[in-house]
């Protein structure tokens, strides 16, 4: 016996289709997910999916865009009142890890990326790096450091947060608070000892 259909409003049906497809895309990827499977899971006919999203690509793009907007606004809000590099890393790390905790399927979609959707994890990281760069530049000027290097250091800080976050998605042996604290430990203990004109300690020998 086929699953019994549930009558929903157009907006409710749209949200249901997004929820069903989001889980399938995260588990099977874009290519491994079919409109037939989405429709079956949602107990609707295929034309209903096409009616709401125009097809699989349109549905995928809507989901990725929604996830990117959610995580971007979360991190931006966390950075808005930051006043020091240690606070920047701590708040950004906790914001990202909390998003992963609440939306692991969404994060997997962003990590996978796709030519079919504009939003990806790399897009997010680039936007965050720009925000962090502006905060660092002001801090560098205040401490007599070269502000033009702020974009480089911003990329470093974003990397300290971005890669461990991907690891934590699959390995929850540590709490998000502990992971964030270790990120801050590495970043802050490095930033507070910055030299104004660093040089390699062991430069390669000239041939």
TrEMBL record:
Signal peptide: none annotated. It holds the Pfam family TetR_C_32. One of its GO terms (molecular function) is transcription cis-regulatory region binding. One of its GO terms (biological process) is negative regulation of DNA-templated transcription. Residues 11-71 form the HTH tetR-type domain. The keyword Transcription regulation applies. Gene3D superfamilies: Tetracycline Repressor, domain 2. Keywords: DNA-binding, Transcription, Transcription regulation. Transmembrane segments: none annotated. Residues 34-53 bind DNA. This is TetR/AcrR family transcriptional regulator. It comes from Actinomyces marmotae.
